[in-house]
From TrEMBL:
Catalytic activity, as annotated: UDP-alpha-D-glucose + 2 NAD(+) + H2O = UDP-alpha-D-glucuronate + 2 NADH + 3 H(+)
Pfam families associated with the record: UDPG_MGDP_dh (PF00984), UDPG_MGDP_dh_C (PF03720), UDPG_MGDP_dh_N (PF03721)
Enzyme Commission code(s) on record: 1.1.1.22
Protein's name in the database: UDP-glucose 6-dehydrogenase
Record's keyword terms, sorted: NAD, Oxidoreductase
Binding site for substrate: 155-158, 213, 258-262, 266, 331
Family, as annotated: Belongs to the UDP-glucose/GDP-mannose dehydrogenase family.
Keyword Cell inner membrane in annotation: no
Binding, NAD(+): 32, 37, 88, 124, 158, 272, 338
Lineage, broadest ranks: Bacteria, Bacillati, Actinomycetota, Actinomycetes, Mycobacteriales
An example Gene Ontology molecular-function term: NAD binding
Annotated active site: 269 (nucleophile)
Top-level enzyme category: oxidoreductase
Pathway in which the depicted protein is active: Nucleotide-sugar biosynthesis; UDP-alpha-D-glucuronate biosynthesis; UDP-alpha-D-glucuronate from UDP-alpha-D-glucose: step 1/1
Length: 441
């Protein structure tokens, strides 16, 4: 059944959700306040790098199922099903999440709702937000109690956004148990195709749905920091964390995924989400429950310091050294540099007096905007020109294909530090290079 849907926010989350809901056959209106972003999307261009999204966007624009607007009036007129997919960044100088974008959508949209409507929140928010937004929406909307707020957290990974939206591991919906309404029935209609395919659908109260998302990200971050903590012990004892991870990962209770030791996690989600989770637990008087996440954060940040130390060791002193940095995105298949471990390391090394040359297959523009003083090169080989040390900080396939012979002629010293344990140590050592990985002998 075709349904009309408005999606508020056209960033990674909102643009993907809008295009994918159209792909499911719905009529979709994407809404944003950023006119430049809207113009790009209307022209079939995705304003960020996300494999496969442009095809879905173009197909659905051409089919007339997908449009974009900056007008909330148009959105309120067009649909009675609204998805909220705006960002919840970390507040400046605090751990807590900044909810100004989420709040702004409700403040603008609710007064325009003259008839029954369901607003599904998708953004990652502190537990308790959905209930508060629901009360505010009912207060502001001419339709009053006929406006419902439900929570439908999003678990998509950048680089796999389309696949994760159209073939999710599960769908989670939080509904207001005190006000039985249409939200569950509407969600079943919107996601009918996915439910027919047997995707698990879990319905809970609002708080549980909000916490499912926070805990999933906290668990993933903990898993990465666990293996990175073990990597520190491996380094101290001459053991190899990659073999160790394979070995413990075979235990189905542990699982091998998210056990890749290296430079640690970054991006627009995991770092700020674990901090917001701690801040919210504190507000609720449950701060002790999540103090371990502070250690998860510390272990993660220590990986970056360790990388800088290894680069310094390799060069003797960073003052006047030339350092090649391969990778700037927080992970491959993304041009996102938000809280990117790679750029953080590059910046620290430059501060210590080295000339840093960065290359990334997709994230050059975003890197230049965020770190304008770093040196940038158009190719991996150019970045390595005259280098005293080569640092691989994002595991792009392009870097995994690099051959020692490609770099032999351009570098000053044959030293490579593999911050993602993504290269074959033996191959580089056999070619006369000094190879160092994180958590490997
Ligand atoms: C994450 C969650 O996976 C997703 O479910 C949620 O909706 C948003 O946050 P994303 O930020 O896109 O997604 O990236 P993810 O693939 O989870 O990687 C996060 C970071 O962890 C990256 O910097 C990555 O390099 C790092 N990582 C991941 C590791 O260091 N080791 C691993 O084993 C896995």
């Amino acid at each position: 059944m075709t349904t009309r849907i408005a999606v508020f926010g056209t960033g990674y989350l909102g643009a993907t959700h809008a295009a994918c809901m159209a792909e499911l056959g719905h009529e979709v209106l994407g809404v944003d306040v950023d006119a430049a972003k809207l113009a790009k999307l209307e022209a079939g261009e995705v304003p960020f790098y996300e494999p496969g999204l442009e095809e879905v966007l173009r197909r659905n624009l051409a089919a007339g199922r997908l449009r974009f607007t900056s007008s909330y009036e148009e959105a309120a007129e067009f649909a009675d099903i609204h998805f909220l997919g705006v960002g919840t960044p970390q507040k400046k100088g605090e751990f807590a999440a900044d909810l100004k974008f989420v709040d702004a959508v409700i403040e603008t949209l609710a007064p325009l709702l003259t008839g029954p409507a369901v607003i599904f929140g998708k953004s990652t928010v502190p537990v308790g937000t959905a209930e508060r937004l629901g009360a505010r929406a009912r207060e502001l909307a001419p339709a009053g109690d006929a406006v419902e707020v439900a929570w439908n957290p999003e678990f998509l990974r950048e680089g796999f956004a389309v696949q994760d939206t159209l073939h999710p591991d599960r769908l989670v919906l939080g509904v207001d148990r005190n006000r039985p309404g249409r939200a569950e029935a509407v969600a079943r209609e919107v996601y009918a195709q996915l439910l027919d395919e047997g995707i698990p659908f879990l319905v809970s109260d609002l708080a549980t749905a909000e916490l499912v998302k926070a805990s999933a990200n906290a668990f993933l971050a903990t898993k990465i920091s666990f293996i990175n903590a073990i990597a520190e012990v491996c380094e101290a004892s001459g053991a190899d964390v990659t073999v160790l991870a394979d070995a413990i990962g075979h235990d189905a209770r542990i699982g091998r995924r998210f056990l890749n030791a290296g430079l640690g996690f970054g991006g627009g989600c995991l770092p700020k989400d674990i901090r917001a989770f701690m801040a919210r637990a504190g507000e609720l008087g449950a701060d002790q429950a999540l103090t371990f996440l502070r250690e998860v954060d510390n272990i993660n940040m220590r990986r970056r310091t360790r990388m800088v130390e290894l680069a310094r060791e390799a060069c003797g002193s960073l003052l006047g050294a030339r350092v090649a940095v391969l990778g700037a995105a927080f992970k491959p298949d993304s041009d996102d540099v938000r809280d990117s471990p790679a750029l953080n390391v590059a910046g620290q090394i430059q501060l210590q007096g080295a000339a840093v040359n960065v290359y990334d297959p997709k994230a050059m523009d975003n890197s230049r905007a965020l770190f304008p003083t770093l040196g940038y090169s158009d190719t991996a080989l150019d970045a390595c020109e005259g280098a005293d040390v080569v640092l691989v900080l994002t595991e792009w396939p392009e870097f995994q294909k690099l051959q020692p012979a490609d770099l032999d002629a351009v570098v000053r010293k044959k030293v490579l530090i593999d911050g993602r344990n993504c290269l074959d140590p033996q191959q580089w050592r056999d070619a006369g290079w000094t190879y160092r990985g994180l958590g490997r002998p």
